[in-house]
Write a sequence for this structure.
């Protein structure tokens, strides 16, 4: 059964872009402080840098972790674990149709929503 996995490439690209955004935020703070801009201009830069760092950490973790989640790559069993499955590897009552995403029971052979064979 195929499952939706994160793309390591898009996650790595997002992490690199977030690092660049954080650098731009630091430049923003430095320029605003050197021009004696109002305090809220500097605070905007601090918030921008904080969000960029948080996003970079998430994306870089997602690009390197074994158990990751996103919506880019479709993988088959044995390639890597499904972060939404139970530890024993079975989806059980928490399994989803790979075509439409509807919940399916462990003993279902076909999806009740789209009819695809599971």
């Amino acid at each position: 059964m195929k499952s939706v996995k994160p793309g390591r490439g898009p996650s790595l690209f997002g992490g690199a872009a977030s690092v660049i955004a954080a650098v731009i935020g630091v430049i923003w703070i430095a320029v605003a402080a050197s021009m004696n801009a109002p305090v809220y201009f500097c605070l905007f830069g601090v918030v921008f840098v904080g969000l960029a760092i948080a996003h970079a950490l998430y994306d870089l973790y997602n690009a390197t972790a074994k158990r990751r989640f996103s919506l880019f790559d479709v993988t088959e069993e044995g390639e890597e674990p499904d972060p939404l499955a139970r530890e024993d590897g079975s989806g059980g009552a928490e399994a989803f149709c790979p075509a439409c995403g509807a919940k399916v029971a462990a003993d279902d052979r076909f999806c009740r929503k789209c009819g695809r064979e599971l």
